[in-house]
Amino acid sequence: MTRLVVRGFSVSLDGYGAGPSQDLEHPLGVGGPEMFDWFFHTRTWQRMHGDAGGETGVDDDIAAQGFDGIGASIMGRNMFGPVRGPWPDESWKGWWGDEPPYHTPVFVLTHHPRAPLAMAGGTEFRFVTEGIHAALQQAIEAAGGRDIRLGGGVATIRQYLSAALIDELHLAIAPVLLGSGEHLLHGLDLRALGYECVKHVAGTRAASHVILRKRASKEKHP
Ligand SMILES: NC(=O)c1ccc[n+]([C@@H]2O[C@H](COP(=O)([O-])OP(=O)(O)OC[C@H]3O[C@@H](n4cnc5c(N)ncnc54)[C@H](OP(=O)(O)O)[C@@H]3O)[C@@H](O)[C@H]2O)c1
Question: pTM for the whole thing?
Fold first, then answer.
């Protein structure tokens, strides 16, 4: 059964998933990196950047599981990059260099059409203008029975949560205050949408890891 999952999504204590003023210098918004202290020190992160070392333990275990069993990803256009409005050209290819860590199709939600973008290592960014259900359907077809990772950002996760389409959501709640930015859960009644907290683990560093799951009574994706 293909599931739609969110893995290792960082949230500040006051509920933001990105800081304000996203741009080329601030991919996570101003202050956003403070939420990722749990992740940036892990062995997994260091290896992703070609470095040896890094910490092992709970945080690293969770970071390492990020891409396990994933056959496709979905993300919003703001997570893909800082370009807004119609694409001026094809030059922006994501934050992740020539060989992004996805190695699967990645469906990018946008209102602005763009041709698919094949990258080294098997990642292909495919731009979807028909909305969240179309992106999910295309991801299910691409995933070959494996799970689909919903990477973010905030607006995209909020839409899939509102439609109760996310099966499992792992949040890393960081003890930092951002004060403003993109708020993840404001106005969403997750309880009414059928979600419950099934696990919480203290991280190696200061973040707390919480797993929310949609109750089993809801249908899984075919
Ligand atoms: N905390 C974390 O762990 C984490 C993880 C990933 C990302 N982030 C951060 O989150 C931030 C991005 O989040 P965000 O909330 O600003 O934006 P987002 O969800 O990444 O993208 C929103 C944009 O995607 C397009 N879009 C979304 N839904 C659509 C739909 N149904 N139909 C068509 N287009 C749609 C629209 O772009 P257009 O209308 O312009 O095409 C919309 O403005 C970034 O700072 C990123 O670094 C944080």
Answer: 0.96
